[in-house]
Amino acid sequence: MSKAARDVAINKFREDPDCKVFLMSMKAGGVALNLTVASHVFMMEPCWNPAVERQAHDTIHRIGQYKPIRVVKFIIENTVEERILKLLFEATVNAHGGIGNWTAEDREFLFTT
Fold first, then answer.
1. Are 38 and 67 in contact (CB under 8 A)?
2. Confidence band (pLDDT; 50, 70, 90) for 8?
3. Which residues belong to the signal peptide in this entry (predicted)?
C-alpha cells in the first residue's frame, strides 16, 4: 500500500463513523500512528520484539484517548505462536527482574565512562 493510500485509509477510519474496523500489520501500523478513535486492539500475529508489539497497541493508547482500552492477543495452543509468546514472556521477566536487582554500584559501573 502506498503512503497516500495508507493516509486515505487512516483518515477514513478516524472520520467515518460507519468505518468500525481498521486492519493492519504490526510493522505497517505500529510506527508514528495515532488511532485514539479506537479502543480495542486485536493482535493476530505475535512479534519477536516486545517493543514493536507495544508500539503497535500504543497507537490507541496516547494523549487524547479517553475510552477504556482493551488489547486482546489471539494465540492457538501448541503452535509456534504460543512458543514465541512464552519466550517473550520469559525474556521480559528476566530483563525486568535482572535490572531490578542491580545495586547502585552495578548501575554506576555499567553506565559511567
1. no
2. very high
3. none
Euclidean distance between CA atoms 5 and 28, whole angstroms:
13
Q: Is the separation of the CB atoms in 39 and 81 below 8 Å?
A: no
- What is the 3-class SS of the chain, one letter each residue? CCHHHHHHHHHHHHHCCCCCCCCCCHHHHCCCCCCCCCCEEEECCCCCCHHHHHHHHCCCCCCCCCCCCEEEECCCCCCHHHHHHHHHHHHHHHHHHHHHCCCHHHHHHHHCC
Report the distance separating Cα 40 and Cα 21, nearest Å: 10
